[in-house]
TrEMBL record:
Protein name per its UniProtKB record: Putrescine importer PuuP
Taxonomic classification: Bacteria, Bacillati, Actinomycetota, Actinomycetes, Mycobacteriales
Main location group: membrane
Localization, UniProt: Membrane
PANTHER family: AMINO ACID TRANSPORTER-RELATED, PUTRESCINE IMPORTER PUUP
Tagged with keyword Membrane: yes
Pfam families, A to Z: AA_permease
Domain Amino acid permease/ SLC12A: 40-401
Membrane topology (UniProt): Multi-pass membrane protein
């Protein structure tokens, strides 16, 4: 590891559109849909595909806003950068602080879920050892550089999509077989459901999309970012929607009844029904692979957001704003996020997932509002009112609605985190009298 004094301050531009799309899909971990399928099915009253279709529409609104902001401000930082540039430095700081809660703890959640599956597959390996194994391998790959992590992602995602294809093939065979119920549009809307139920389920289904925005944190590691980043963000959201809707459709047709004895294990029941014990083992392997790929990209995105805030001196620059001269990666940030992941040893999946979405939805809302502010400052450029005002306003409203669907514990933790952020902002702005340090673009 290089010392801060020797560190460089520029990231390598080594990524193109396919790598960005793979990164975004890996971040979302599409196979995780089956882990929450039972909850979506019950809340939508058997219309899980309809719920995911509605969630896809909502997320595409926000994805379009991310694309517009990435084109206008092609630098790392995601919601933090966009709100900072379009609305103002203080709002930008609070946006970055809010989404930092999501970015910092999402790798922990992913590693913990993956470790639980690995422990189930290999009971002789203690859970804490599984967590450490996930953290060490992903941290080393991220330290070695974007190209190494990118190649690992491509391999892992290829294996994951093979499992998804096998699931669809086996499910289709079950549906069309003598014991199946045949193909229909019931998973989108049926006599037993209603729009209110589908909307409530869509609020939960939207959690599956968390991470499509992380593509924007790689702006400074991308060739021609003004063109590639907006395209990649929309592709990730759209492809993620196609995968989620497709998986939900086939899973719902395999099990048309909306309710399960235990919704948390619905995927295990469905996988056993269509493929037996052999495919059940393959499925668990796929979840482990998917969680590993997702953990790799979640940590990757978190370190880039920390780097952007450190480079601004919003966070201490000597630690957060430095890159290794040898690998040109934010090594200190990578080690820090790995250390945070160790907290998973003493946490449950339920506890750790209860508060990560708060920051994400605030980030979504602020990016949509940033587009509207950008339009107000550049009206002379004849920007589309629908694209820069109406669509982002709808996206912001959807994000706020989804945030209100979080449980009380998540809202409490999120509120406390924001209060701490206001205190930090007051300190670095001398009681809000000056702006936070400006971005060094």
């Amino acid at each position: 590891m290089e010392t801060p004094a020797a560190a460089t301050t520029e990231l390598k531009r080594a990524l193109r559109t396919p790598s960005l799309v793979v990164f975004g899909l890996a971040y979302m971990a599409p196979l995780e849909l089956l882990a929450i399928f039972g909850v979506i099915s019950e809340n939508s009253l058997g219309a899980s595909a309809g719920a995911y279709l509605l969630a896809t529409f909502a997320m595409l609104l926000t994805a379009a806003s991310y694309g517009k902001m990435a084109r206008a401000y092609p630098v790392s930082g995601s919601a933090y950068t966009y709100a900072r540039r379009a609305i103002g430095p203080k709002v930008g700081f609070l946006s970055g602080w809010a989404i930092l809660l999501d970015y910092m703890f999402l790798p922990l959640v992913v590693w913990l879920i993956g470790a639980n599956y690995l422990h189930e597959a290999v009971p002789a390996l203690p859970l804490w050892a599984c967590i450490v194994l996930f953290i060490v391998i992903t941290s080393v790959l991220n330290i070695l550089g974007v190209k190494v992590a990118d190649r690992a992602n491509l391999i892992l995602m290829a294996l994951l999509f093979l499992i998804i294809i096998f699931f669809v093939i086996l499910a289709a065979g079950q549906i069309a077989g003598p014991e199946g119920h045949g193909f229909s549009l019931d998973p989108f809307y049926n006599d037993g459901t209603n729009f209110g139920a589908i909307s409530a389920a869509a609020a939960i289904a939207a959690y599956s999309f968390l991470g499509f925005d992380a593509v924007t944190t790689l702006t400074e590691e991308t060739h021609e970012p003004r063109k590639r980043i907006p395209r990649a963000v929309m592709l990730v959201a759209a492809l993620g929607g196609v995968i989620f809707v497709g998986l939900a459709y086939f899973a719902q047709l395999v099990h048309p009844e909306p309710f399960f004895d235990n919704p948390d294990t619905a995927a295990v029941d469905i996988v056993a029904q269509i493929g037996g014990p052999l495919f059940g083992a393959i499925f668990i392997s796929g979840v482990i692979i998917g969680e590993f790929a997702s953990g790799l990209t979640c940590q990757w995105g978190a370190t880039r957001l920390l780097y952007a805030m450190g480079r601004d001196n919003v966070l201490p620059r000597r630690f957060f704003g430095q890159l290794s001269e040898r690998w040109q990666t934010p090594v200190f940030n990578t080690v820090l996020t790995g250390a945070v992941g160790l907290i998973g040893i003493v946490m449950s999946v339920e506890t750790s997932t209860s508060f990560i979405n708060f920051g994400a939805f605030i980030g979504f809302a602020m990016v949509n509002l940033s587009v509207i502010y950008y339009w107000s400052k550049h009206r002379g450029e004849r920007l589309s009112v629908f694209g820069y005002v109406v669509a982002p306003a709808l996206g912001a409203l959807v994000a706020v609605f989804l945030m209100t669907q979080l449980d009380g514990a998540a809202l409490l933790v999120g509120a406390i985190w924001l209060v701490i952020g206001v205190g930090v902002l007051a300190r670095i702005t001398r009681g809000f009298k000056v702006d936070p340090p400006e971005m060094e673009a």
